[in-house]
Amino acid sequence: MRCALLLAVAFLGLNMTVSAVMAQQTCDILPTPNSGFVPRSGNRLPPVTPNSSPQSANLARQPIGSGIPASSRTGQPLGQSVGGPLELTPLPPTQYPAIQNPAIQNPAAIPCAAPTHSPQPRAPNKPYRGISDGYIGSSVTSTPSGRLFEASDHDATSLGGPSYSGPSYAEPFQSAPIQGGPQPSAPIQNGVTQSGPADQYWKTEAECGVKGCESSSVCSTPASRWFAGVYAVAMTRDRVNNVWLSYDTADIRSRVLNTYDADASYSAGFETRFGRFFGCGSTAFEFIYWGIYPGSEEANAWGANAVVGLDTILHFDGISYDPGGGPQLVSTAFFLAERHRLRRNYDLHNIELNLFESNYTQLCGCSNVKLAWAAGLRYVSFDESFLYSTDPIDISFTGAQEELHYGIEAENDLLGFQVGGRVDVCFTPCLTSYVDTKVGIFVNRSSQHSRIFGTNGLAEVSDVVSPYFGTPLDIRAEKKDAAFVAEFRTGLDYQFTPSWSATIGYRVVGLTGVALSTNQIPVDYISAIDSLRTVNTNGSLIAHGAYAGLEYNY
Fold first, then answer.
1. Maximum Cα interatomic distance, the chain, rounded to a whole number of Å
2. Domain that holds residue 14
């Protein structure tokens, strides 16, 4: 009796041990209700099937999937186990409750303790992007317990199973400080990093337009593309040197006409440029043309407004002109004339071919300052004309024989090498201000053409003692000399589509070592022809004005 009681107790203990092992096996094997995968290993397992193979005494160590012994059925006659190996029969199949999520057809499992899993360490200098994106370079999510899992731990579709469509959870902690980089200054709410002062620095390579040399951002600079622009230009020039021309004969100090009276006003022109980006958009060449086409500026002195009459301060002595009744001194045509007239004109044209290198592949959200340097060839054409006329008979210039003119045309062709730089500062990803400058040394091929003429031809030297007696006053001269050109621009750019942008700005261009028409007027007697056979290139010019236009990338 005592032996039977002991055997019954031993059998009940063994049966409870087998049940506990089966429960633990089920906890470790069966999928969880929400994911259908093994949390620790990430591997899906085949369903547990009965197996009648003999088992070892240590059932907890037997391999998963080997099954439960066929002789494990409860209620087996106790006497069958005495004196021989224990034989168990399989347990009846367990019925599991239905899952609430219809997308998951796996049976529910016995509740298990939350698995312990440490998050993957963050890569150096990789900023936290919020719980929806995890760390840059990896996909991280959280569970209700607050622990992090890799994508392979919760992506059932990658293992051939249905995708998880259950609820998501917010990350319960802030990101750790980042060594060697800017720190986020905005809180994380509901798993999304909120916008803050430092938010503009939290960009990926794709957002910065670096990865693949392209970006989907509206305000990115297209890489490896052609670009072109057309602009309206309005410019004027400085007053340069003032030359006194006419006075009232009643008082030589009464200056009634000088070159400042015919100063240039703003004149219209246009600008165009085109070029192409190479590589990732950091290198490009560009062709630039701009020019202005001013009209003539005119100033007059009227004999009727003079106390006595008009006269000129220029030295026309020893030069004669035949108005039809015989040669007369040119100074006679200017003395006591009814009208003195001054006309001035100039034009300015610029052509450039530049190569520039920049960090333009960085968007404004990644860097607020963009830098570039440029180098190339430049050609500048600057021409200026001066025409001082007199009408001794009336106040209308009709081409009559008595009307006389003193004209000077100065031309400058500058060709040289230049270098420069540009700085862009971003106010928003689409609105930037810029400053650029260029400077270069040039060779100036200058010329001047001076003459005194009327309807009946040219005036000539009439001084019989002059070595130039009989020489017509139609003198040309040329000269090559060094010159310098500098340009400064500043303005605003607004990019309103990926291809179109608008710009407005102001330009200042300075030229030195150029020939001005007023600098060719001799300070001594004009009849001394030697003074007309040289080119004075000690002049300078400053032209400045605004421009506005559209640019297109294609």
1. 169
2. 2-81
